[in-house]
């Protein structure tokens, strides 16, 4: 008896709607037959249909031609590729858990995968000032669970580029930052992870306004996640993911080496005060 097809959830997101329409329009046509028509593997089409994979950019036009749907799949693809939180955030977490290579750039905060619990707690309290303690602790626990990717049998290769601001901008007070910077140094020295610092002296660059995560999956697929202060965009099409990879590679070539970065982080650690004092504002122009 053939397995029953997996139920679809077209109301969940544009990507899910794309898959549901794909199944609906193929009707009694098998995935094997559709694979022959559009020249994609059956397994790839199955993942698109169940929304486990983003449709590749060339597939919508092929489906519109195969089903004579007058651009419907092209329109759905444009919605899906620009879809933002929260569905894309969930997809980002899934990719992070599956990736064999993870590369990140952050301009303001330590990446979640290498945060201490106290740093994460201070970060969440700053970002969600009205959240209850229980809510904050739940978010911290979820972040710590994400770090389990480094404990699995085949942990991902990990690299991160940190803007100097990440080291200078304190969260939670000097004690929290001291533990966080120490964690970064230990991570660099005791794992296969690579952390590099991009100093202020480098100047401006294309990624300065946000953060970037790049995921390489076991099948070689490249996915990018670009995030601002309150929104994120998942890019599963090769063209945009490749463009973000080039930007990342440029920053990596200009960042300090891993050993220089460790020394730089140590120098910031050594200058941390016991407590943060009041801010000293400069006097207005023309006044003493």
UniProtKB/TrEMBL annotation:
MF terms in GO:
DNA binding
Q: Which residues form the DUF5753 domain?
A: 90-266
The protein's matches in Gene3D superfamilies, at most eight in alphabetical order, are given as: lambda repressor-like DNA-binding domains
Q: Which InterPro entries match?
A: Cro/C1-type_HTH, DUF5753, Lambda_DNA-bd_dom_sf
Q: Which Pfam families match?
A: DUF5753 (PF19054)
Q: Which SUPFAM superfamilies match?
A: lambda repressor-like DNA-binding domains (SSF47413)
Q: Name the CDD domains on file.
A: HTH_XRE
Signal peptide coordinates: none
Which segments of the protein form a coiled coil according to its record?
none
State the name under which the record lists this protein: XRE family transcriptional regulator
């Amino acid at each position: 008896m053939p397995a029953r097809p997996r139920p679809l959830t077209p109301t969940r997101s544009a990507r899910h709607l794309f898959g549901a329409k794909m199944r609906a329009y193929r009707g009694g046509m098998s995935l094997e037959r559709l694979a022959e028509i559009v020249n994609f593997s059956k397994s790839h089409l199955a993942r698109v249909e169940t929304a486990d994979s983003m449709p590749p950019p060339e597939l919508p036009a092929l489906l519109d031609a195969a089903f004579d749907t007058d651009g419907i799949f092209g329109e759905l693809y444009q919605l899906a590729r620009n879809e933002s939180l929260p569905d894309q955030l969930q997809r980002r977490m899934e990719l992070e858990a599956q990736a064999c290579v993870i590369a990140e750039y952050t301009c303001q905060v330590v990446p979640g995968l290498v945060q201490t619990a106290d740093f994460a707690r201070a970060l969440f309290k700053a970002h969600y000032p009205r959240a209850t303690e229980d809510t904050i602790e739940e978010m911290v626990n979820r972040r710590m669970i994400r770090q389990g990717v480094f404990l699995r049998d085949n942990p991902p290769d990990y690299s991160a580029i940190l803007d100097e601001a990440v080291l200078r901008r304190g969260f939670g007070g000097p004690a929290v930052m001291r533990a966080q910077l120490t964690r970064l140094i230990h991570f660099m020295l005791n794992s296969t992870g690579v952390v590099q610092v991009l100093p202020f002296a480098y100047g401006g660059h294309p990624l300065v306004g946000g953060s970037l995560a790049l995921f390489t999956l076991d099948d070689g697929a490249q996915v990018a996640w670009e995030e601002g202060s309150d929104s994120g965009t998942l890019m599963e099409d090769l063209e945009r993911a490749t463009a973000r990879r080039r930007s990342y590679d440029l920053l990596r070539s200009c960042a300090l080496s891993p050993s220089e970065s460790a020394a730089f982080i140590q120098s910031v650690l050594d200058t941390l005060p016991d407590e943060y004092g009041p801010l000293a504002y400069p006097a207005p122009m023309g006044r003493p």
